[in-house]
Amino acid sequence: MELLSNLNIQLYLAAYLIGSIPFGYLLAKNFAGVDVKQEGSGNIGATNVLRVLKQRDPALAKKLGAATLFLDAIKGVVILLIAKMLGASPSTLWTIAVLAVWGHCFSIFLGFDGGKGVATGFGVLLFLLPIPTLIALAAWAVAAKTLKISSLSSLIALAALMIASYLLYPEGVPGIGTHAPVWIIALTVLYKHIPNLIRLFNKEEAPVA
């Protein structure tokens, strides 16, 4: 029990548990009566919420898709803000960021299944690594506009973020002197996109209309 009284451990648990909240699943289930884990790609993220609900109610689909995107992006940032106000070290903040992404990707509330980690990942990275993340978001916007494939656009943005991070901070991200947590987040997102990569290879990945 003494372990749980440690502030860092409390922050880490909060990051994982709040990151685990499957907002897309909950919103679609409660406001549209749809289980997004059983339809479309089976993903709980904003893209699948939008794709599945668009067939039933386009206006509601846009609202719930936007709400899912916002909530998934902000849930890791909330704990980071609290931790920073409490004077947490940069290494603690980066651990919180990783755990928030892991919570989303491997949610305890969904039997350690979850989303792709894109929105949550970019949320925490925008907080901790703003310039490379803004570059990545610009790359995502261009790719999404031209390719209209959400998964591929996200992976292009992820590659842009890694390149920008190394170009701007060749000795490691500020405060910790390493790119390790960025790599952990990137590899987690990439791992969760393996089914998308297989569909892309087989030319079966559906574009976002």
Automatic annotation (TrEMBL):
SMART domains: G3P_acyltransf
Localization in the cell: Cell inner membrane
Catalytic activity from the UniProt record: an acyl phosphate + sn-glycerol 3-phosphate = a 1-acyl-sn-glycero-3-phosphate + phosphate
One GO term of the biological process aspect: phospholipid biosynthetic process
Transmembrane segments: 12-28, 64-86, 92-112, 124-143, 149-169, 176-194
Keywords, sorted A to Z: Acyltransferase, Cell inner membrane, Cell membrane, Lipid biosynthesis, Lipid metabolism, Membrane, Phospholipid biosynthesis, Phospholipid metabolism, Transferase, Transmembrane, Transmembrane helix
EC class name: transferase
Molecular function (Gene Ontology), one example: acyl-phosphate glycerol-3-phosphate acyltransferase activity
EC number annotated for this UniProt entry: 2.3.1.275
Annotated metabolic or biological route of this protein: Lipid metabolism; phospholipid metabolism
Any GO CC annotation of this UniProt entry: plasma membrane
InterPro entries: G3P_acylTferase_PlsY (IPR003811)
One Pfam family per UniProt: G3P_acyltransf
Topology class, membrane: Multi-pass membrane protein
Entry superkingdom: Bacteria
Assembly mode: Probably interacts with PlsX.
Family listed: Belongs to the PlsY family.
Function recorded in the entry: Catalyzes the transfer of an acyl group from acyl-phosphate (acyl-PO(4)) to glycerol-3-phosphate (G3P) to form lysophosphatidic acid (LPA). This enzyme utilizes acyl-phosphate as fatty acyl donor, but not acyl-CoA or acyl-ACP.
Protein name: Glycerol-3-phosphate acyltransferase
Organism: Nitratifractor salsuginis (strain DSM 16511 / JCM 12458 / E9I37-1)
